[in-house]
């Protein structure tokens, strides 16, 4: 769907490629477990790192910002390569500046708005690390991924997102000589939206053609985007949730420009499937399944289990379908069943599900054009885990929790995605009304099918 991440709301914190020395970088601990069978799990000492797009960038010889408001410092950054040489990113104070804390072992709390000495930070995005300099890589075929979440303080218009992106293990450090920061400082981001608001791509500043956002004083977009396959495990707030595979034609992080980025009228000509094939229980016909006091009660924490089933039951088989379960109060809750005319009553994502959904909703099946479930499966073997919280400056998160398009008839299949008011996600509204909103992720597990949760 649509993803525009808010950068910090003060001009001094943005992305760069050299490494500064003003603040030491210390990655918050977030251990995970790898399971071979129920009750047989091994702990791994993983941690998280803040995305470089949120960090302070300054000239290497001092404290002058390389980016102000939503404009580049043209003296330091006359072009992309020179900017990468002139600008450094620094370490992060995760709690004080960004509101990123660890309320307990294996848990991570991401606060939506954090007031700090420089103003306010809006949202955040972090990646799971295997070591101090490398991301933790995931191969998801014939496995399940499980985690706990608390969205009780995450209202309409916000998105607590957990997903996988096909990023480089070292953040592009070895591939691009002008990138001196690497994974240790959260570089190398990409996703299926081929975002053009990323300030450094392929070790160069995205200064060419850069223009400031019309509705975000601290964001903009440049000539280039950064594309890769993306598996959205969880995009949600307390009122709506979706999980969505987004395959791409390309393998791994790839810089795009022009038609290949798939923007505007080129949406169905780009490298990646931006729409994806989503399973949102409300949109798929069960409007009493997910929410406060419902089957999956979002007023309380719960566990999310996502299984990647192959056609031959092996780790090298072709991806066949993606299954979803929830566990709450020791009760295993199967995913909701599709109740849409013209669609089979299933509760998983497969090529058949996607084809029927696109036909029922009148949507372009670019998912199939790009390669469908099989292509997604090929790209699930080298993934980086992303954890974030964000608001949507493009379409106010209506694609997730309201009617979308907003002028569409909600009685038409596929238009209604949740109960939220269309104005609730306006960044000016949600940032003012819910600065204390947060999401808590915890208890991350990866394992063989049916190994990471207890069936009742």
UniProtKB/TrEMBL annotation:
List the Gene3D superfamilies.
Glycoside hydrolase, family 7, domain
Q: Which GO terms describe its biological process?
A: cellulose catabolic process
One short Pfam name that applies is Glyco_hydro_7
The signal peptide here is 1-16
The EC number on file is 3.2.1.-
* Annotated keywords: Carbohydrate metabolism, Cellulose degradation, Glycosidase, Hydrolase, Polysaccharide degradation, Signal
Reaction catalysed by this chain? Hydrolysis of (1->4)-beta-D-glucosidic linkages in cellulose and cellotetraose, releasing cellobiose from the non-reducing ends of the chains
What's a Gene Ontology MF term here?
A: cellulose 1,4-beta-cellobiosidase activity
InterPro entries recorded for this chain?
Answer: ConA-like_dom_sf, Glyco_hydro_7, Glyco_hydro_7_sf
Family note: Belongs to the glycosyl hydrolase 7 (cellulase C) family.
This one is known as Glucanase
> Can you name the source organism?
Diplogelasinospora grovesii
């Amino acid at each position: 769907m649509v993803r525009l991440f808010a950068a910090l709301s003060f001009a001094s914190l943005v992305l760069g490629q050299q490494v500064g020395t003003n603040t030491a970088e210390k990655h918050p601990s977030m251990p995970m477990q790898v399971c071979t069978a129920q009750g047989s799990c091994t702990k791994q000492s993983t941690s998280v790192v803040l995305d470089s797009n949120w960090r302070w960038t300054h000239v290497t010889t001092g404290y002058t910002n390389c980016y102000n408001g939503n404009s580049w410092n043209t003296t330091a950054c006359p072009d992309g390569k020179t900017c990468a040489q002139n600008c450094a990113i620094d370490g992060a104070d995760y709690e004080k500046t960004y509101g990123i804390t660890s309320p307990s072992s294996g848990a991570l709390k991401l606060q939506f708005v954090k007031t700090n000495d420089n103003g306010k930070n809006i949202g955040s995005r972090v990646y799971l690390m295997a070591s101090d300099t490398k991301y933790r890589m995931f191969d998801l075929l014939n496995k399940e991924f499980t985690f706990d979440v608390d969205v009780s303080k995450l209202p309409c218009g916000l998105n607590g997102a957990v997903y996988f992106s096909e990023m480089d293990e070292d953040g592009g450090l070895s591939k691009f000589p002008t990138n001196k920061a690497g994974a240790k400082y959260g570089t190398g981001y990409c996703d299926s939206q081929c975002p053009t608001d990323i300030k450094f791509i392929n070790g160069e500043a995205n200064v060419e053609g850069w223009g400031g956002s019309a509705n975000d004083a601290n964001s903009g977009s440049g000539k280039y985007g950064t594309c890769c396959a993306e598996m959205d495990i969880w995009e949600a707030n307390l009122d709506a949730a979706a999980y969505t595979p987004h395959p791409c034609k390309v393998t791994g992080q790839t810089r795009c420009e022009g038609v290949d980025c798939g923007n505007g009228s080129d949406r169905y000509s780009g490298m990646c499937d931006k729409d994806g094939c989503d399973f949102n229980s409300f949109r798929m016909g069960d409007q009493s399944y997910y929410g406060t006091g419902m089957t999956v009660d979002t007023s309380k924490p719960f566990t999310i289990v996502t299984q990647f089933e192959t056609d031959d039951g092996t780790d090298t088989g072709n991806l066949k379908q993606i299954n979803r379960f929830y566990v709450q109060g020791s009760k295993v809750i199967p995913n909701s069943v599709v109740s849409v005319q013209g669609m089979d009553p299933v509760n998983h994502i497969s090529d058949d599900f996607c084809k029927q959904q696109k036909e029922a909703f009148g949507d372009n099946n670019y998912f199939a054009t790009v390669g469908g479930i099989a292509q997604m499966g090929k790209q699930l073997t080298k993934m980086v885990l992303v954890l974030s919280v964000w608001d949507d400056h493009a379409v106010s998160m209506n694609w997730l929790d309201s009617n979308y398009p907003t002028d569409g008839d909600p009685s038409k299949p596929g238009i209604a995605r949740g109960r939220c008011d269309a104005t609730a996600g306006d960044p000016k509204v949600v940032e003012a009304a819910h600065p204390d909103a947060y999401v808590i992720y915890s208890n991350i597990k990866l394992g063989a099918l049916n190994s990471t949760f207890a069936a009742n």
